[in-house]
Amino acid sequence: MASLLISAEHMITTPGGGPTRVLSPGFVRAENGVITEVGEGRPPGVPDADLGEGLLAPGLVDLQVNGFFGYDMVDADVDQWRTVVSRLPETGVTAFMPTFITAPVQVQAEALLRTRDLLPDLASGTKVLGVHLEGPFLSERRKGAHNAAYLTDPTPEAIAALLETGLVKLVTLAPEREGALAAIRELDAAGVLVSVGHSDATAAQTAAAADAGARMVTHIFNAQSGVGHRDPGVATQALIDRRLHPGLILDLHHVSPEAAKLVFQAADGRVLLVTDAASSAGMPPGTYELGGEPITMPEQGPPLRADGTLAGSGLRLDEALGNAAALGIDTAVAVDAATRVPADLIGRPDIGRIAPGASADLVWLGPDHRAHATWINGQKVFGGGS
């Protein structure tokens, strides 16, 4: 691979494992797809890209993508997968976790096998970090858009069947289900991140899940017990427990602006932005699918089931950063929530940061907070930028 030198008026960096900060101006140099130098001021030599207004940030990392551009990841064929991984850089995303929602365990196992077999045939594009299973080990009381007929307990047999391919890297479950704490310990031992979600658990039960190894809470406030002052639930524990990282869908529909500010203030440094994008994301209003069942994308707002239940989102992750900026969230904090925090949570210190030794996955966010150019492993895969 060729070398790459980018100069930017404003650049996010995480030097030497220290706090993330903004350099104004700054530059980054990469060789063979890996960052070799990060500096303040103008670079020595002529840069390959000289970026003006906006912000050079690490490539965005999304741990919850059900689908995009018309395709649901669980049953997408290889050409549809190619479309998604080649186009997600348009949104600034350089690494993601396709998310498979509730289905019978055997159906999920078959989807994992199919996905494992097609991944080697994908063209270069957004990196696939493994699969996020959102269900079927969820609460009937907090099922959201999931099919209640397929919800079940996380038995050792079910866990073994789903781990067989080695693709599963994140599992959302309800810790109050029978056998859930044992399942959390088993998943954690297998190197799988466990997230509490679609759960009616008490704060104490959520803390017990963290004791067993859970480290994340899926789309905080949505489809979970909340912040009752006498009956604290999942959301309460997510905000106060330093071991837990709340995922936040910052489309300003799933969570109000005020509640989003609360999350960032109470869980400072632990928030990760996710899209929970459905197949309707990036598409015009119409009818699409989520988990094999229809959803409707309206003119405004997130997609819905026929009964009015929210069914994922139409959010872009760069748009979530724009929403964070509009709320007054510090730039470095917001960018961390879409890059370094999710990367660290899944044990990938090679992505989600601009620092020597990390992959040269980069996005130039314009003044409109949208991706104007994206690089993966030092190769430009979207946009302009000189």
Automatic annotation (TrEMBL):
Substrate binds at A145, N222, A223, R230, H254, L310, A311, G312. Residues 56-380 form the Amidohydrolase-related domain. The keyword Metal-binding applies. This is N-acetylglucosamine-6-phosphate deacetylase. One of its GO terms (molecular function) is N-acetylglucosamine-6-phosphate deacetylase activity. Its EC number is 3.5.1.25. SUPFAM superfamilies: Composite domain of metallo-dependent hydrolases (SSF51338), Metallo-dependent hydrolases (SSF51556). The keyword Hydrolase applies. The lineage of its organism: Bacteria, Bacillati, Actinomycetota, Actinomycetes, Streptosporangiales. The active site is at D276 (proton donor/acceptor). Zn(2+) binds at E134, H198, H219. Binds 1 divalent metal cation per subunit. Its cofactor is a divalent metal cation. One of its GO terms (biological process) is N-acetylglucosamine catabolic process. It comes from Actinomadura litoris. It holds the Pfam family Amidohydro_1. Belongs to the metallo-dependent hydrolases superfamily. NagA family. Keywords: Carbohydrate metabolism, Hydrolase, Metal-binding.
